[in-house]
């Protein structure tokens, strides 16, 4: 096997590999000899089938395996001899000349093929001793606890029948039965009985609830609506429908009560214990937001410290992922780039920068983690997998089996764990100062950041902060 480098341009490499006919014949003969000891063919004793007969029966199949093994061996040799880290699996280009391929299959001619590689850049770790970060920390306001308790009480309160002549108002609960039709024909999922509907809650199709305001117990109404264009059921999306609705009861909400009984309804022994639990939960939410902002600051600092050539294919794949989401969201919202005061070319340029940031940070974090010898234990992966399975009640076993049988999917479980460990490692190397802030300050920019990476930015000057934050969260994908 002769290997010659033919291209070294940036992160791209190409090598020509030549497998000479003599080597192919030796490999083929060795494989056939091995097959001879295993083959069971009628008319021959085990282990006594002539090699020539095996060649006639299985020669091409065995040679295909020989060539595949030779290609794999060549790839491993190239990587090892040149100390390369690959960004992608090698791309193999065989000769277009069929006669050359046929000669190689018969071990009567040399086979030359090209191995094209895209390698990862060498990254020199930057000095972070001059990096100073601010970690926003917020105390849990009593008002937030009170507001949470009010929401819990409102969602848990009882309703009482208003009476036959009472008209339904916003905030009331209706008990309804309905039959839906499209062009006069019933459709699956369009029928319901004894369904509670809270007026003003937006539970049903837009326009449905409003047409039931003022209804009385026992009243029948025809409700005409149009399913949203992005409705989950494709056979209904964008189509007009009619519902024959019968109101069987009109109920008014009873007074909200925040007391020990409310606490018991949520499994707590007293209102004080419920307040304590609510405060702790809000505190965890605050801590998570604080961590997100601190991490964003760290990754911003890293992004400013590193500049190197990026593997083109990695960037292109990341950009395609982001751009597909952009187009899907715009289609669902029925918007154009002009609606966002931009152009498709400008939006593409902005989102390509985001893709480049993702890839760059992913590679940096991978290198830092490798040099710091960051490890992920099987227990950590198992725990994360259990948490993922819990997100699908009733399907836990299927989810578990899916990830266990799909290494690439399991890598998506490992990647965030790895990233958080690397972030923890880095936070130990930089200066971090706690800064007490209000709840509003902790969540500042959240509204502005709603322009996610899946939506075009209105102008280049208005950076999509949340898109970059999402890029940070997924930076490890490039190194998974």
TrEMBL record:
GO cellular component: cytoplasm
Record organism: Bosea thiooxidans
Keyword DNA repair: no
GO process terms (BP): 'de novo' cotranslational protein folding; cell division; protein transport; protein unfolding
This protein's UniProt keywords: Cell cycle, Cell division, Chaperone, Cytoplasm, Isomerase, Rotamase
Lineage: Bacteria, Pseudomonadati, Pseudomonadota, Alphaproteobacteria, Hyphomicrobiales
Record's protein name: Trigger factor
Job of this protein: Involved in protein export. Acts as a chaperone by maintaining the newly synthesized protein in an open conformation. Functions as a peptidyl-prolyl cis-trans isomerase.
Biased composition (Basic and acidic residues): 466-480
EC number: 5.2.1.8
Record NCBIfam families: tig
UniProt-annotated location(s): Cytoplasm
Highest taxon in the source lineage: Bacteria
